[in-house]
Amino acid sequence: MPIEPPASPWSFGDPRRFDARDDLVGVGADLEPGTLLSAYRQGLFPMPSGHAGDPMYWFCPVERGVLPLDGLHVSRSLRRSVRTFETRVDTAFEQVLDACADPRRPSGWIDDDIREAYLCLHDLGWAHSVETWHEGRLVGGLYGVATGGLFAGESMFHHETDASKVALVALVGLLDDEHAADRLLDVQWSTAHLASLGVVEIERAEYLRRLAVAVALPLPKVFSDA
Fold first, then answer.
1. Cβ neighbours of residue 34 closer than 8 Å, sequence gap 6 or more
2. pLDDT digit string (tens) for 191-210?
3. What is the mean pLDDT of residues 151-167?
4. What are the TM regions of this chain, as residue ranges (predicted)?
5. What is the rounded distance in angstroms from the CA atom of residue 112 to the CA atom of residue 15?
6. Do 121 and 152 contact (CB within 8 A), yes or no?
7. What confidence tens digit (pLDDT) does each residue in 69-116 have?
8. Is residue 119 classed as helix, strand or coil in its secondary structure?
9. Residue 71's closest CA among 190, 169, 204?
10. Which of 85, 88, 190, 192 has the fewest CB atoms lying closer than 10 Å?
11. Nearest in space to 34 (alpha carbons), one of 15, 59, 12, 9
12. How far apart are CA 142 and CA 153, in angstroms?
């Protein structure tokens, strides 16, 4: 079972009072495990500004990207890829994180502080990776934070075609249990690529309503046994 860390001394305020026009809702605080879990449970997530020495930025998007568990689009070619690759959970979390943080990737945002924070969350049993393997090599995957019925996806990567998509298919399967109707798979912001896989946008107020239900659920068995 995950280990609950000490409570955060920081308060993000009432999410219902956030500026309805701005995704950025907070600046500062820290990346201690208690702070991160408190943020996710209230609908926030951190992201560095990109400038050395700046405080951490905290976001709660006005339009939130979520993937309905019954809405994943699996093409015929992706079905073939699912049969080609092997998927595993939490056997290479650090490698997945580092692949997502590769500075050669465009729009890279995972800095050393973020890396250390999520390694710590993983050690405590809250951050998880879903990995795609081919012939014994790690070729794709994703990582995120699981608390109750929320899985907050952070980043994904691939070194072979469809490898990250196969990890997403596997994740949806892991979340598809008796509580699936109320579980929440959060991807932060939607993109054209994510929309092609079934990601939709919902308004902040609706996201927060669903979040309150989701975080009260038990963890999926695969993550509670981690």
1. 5, 6, 7, 8
2. 999 999 999 999 999 999 99
3. 96
4. none
5. 28
6. no
7. 999 999 999 999 999 999 999 999 999 999 999 987 766 789 999 999
8. helix
9. 169
10. 192
11. 9
12. 7
Spatial distance between the Cα atoms of 119 and 100, rounded to a whole number of angstroms? 13
CB 5 within 8 A of CB 33: yes
Q: Full-prediction pTM beyond 0.85?
A: yes
Q: Counting Cβ atoms within 10 Å, is residue 158 exposed (0-12), middle (13-18) or buried (19+)?
A: middle
Structure tokens at 73: 């689009």
The fold for domain 65-224 equals Aminopeptidase (3.40.630)
Per CATH, the number for 15-62 is 3.30.70.3550
Give strand pairing partners of 202: 64
Q: Structural domain boundaries of the chain?
A: 15-62, 65-224
% of the chain exceeding 90 in pLDDT:
90
